[in-house]
Give the backbone structure.
Amino acid sequence: MCSQRSEQEPVADPITLFESLAKQPLVSSCSLCHSVPQGTVGAFLAIGAEYQSITSHRIGVFLNAATAAQSLLLQKGAHIGPAFNTAQYIAVQTWLDAEIAFRNSRKPELTNSYRLPTAPLAIGDFTMRFGSLAPINDAQVSLTFSLAPAKDDLYRVSQLKLAASPNTSIFIKSPKFYFISANSTIADSANSLDMVELGVEAGSSMTVGSGTVLLSNTPINDPNARIGVAFQIVKRAN
Ligand code: HEC
């Protein structure tokens, strides 16, 4: 008897596609130069860590495209190095389309969370106010932090502080940084604040967690990118 499959064929995960399809052409045509830095261009095919290396190059610049064909990796063409031949192009494109789709589908758990108004993503100091966020509705209650580049394409949030106002005490749980870019909304993968439950009494301010978070999904190459903070719980504590 022939039974209909009720579930869809599992789609090969991007890492498997990379290893089975894309790695060989990349290694054979590109690694000679790109396993090591080329001038100001950092290595993006580190030997033995090709997948990690190519997906994290310049905070994911190769993945920051709507489709693989628009990625810098496939757009580069002939330069000091060669262009891909057709078979190589198709192999890399197949992996990269799966990789981009996978990353975009990794929707953050932001749907039911409290979110502060987002701000343009930039290096510097931020003040995010709870003025328009129920149940706080008090613009003197704020979350402040500084954002600066850290090593290895990471960005560091420091001096992360929650300030109550003279009239409002606030309680927050599990703050999470996220980014809005042209293609997607991505929660940062840093989970160091997941355990944070912090109450700040009226008139005072407190450091959130250790006050520092390393962000790894920062779409810094997108000039229109915005940064936001979501919370699992935001409550008035008085
Ligand atoms: C003979 C050495 C050499 C080989 C082989 C080589 N490249 Fe390059 N590649 C360079 C140099 C040098 C640069 C930096 C200058 C530039 O951007 O053109 C570069 C830059 C790049 C960049 C820009 C990266 C960035 O961060 O801006 C991409 C993308 C790239 N190469 C892709 C490839 C691909 C794909 C292959 C294999 C098909 C390849 N390269 C093979 C020398 C090489």
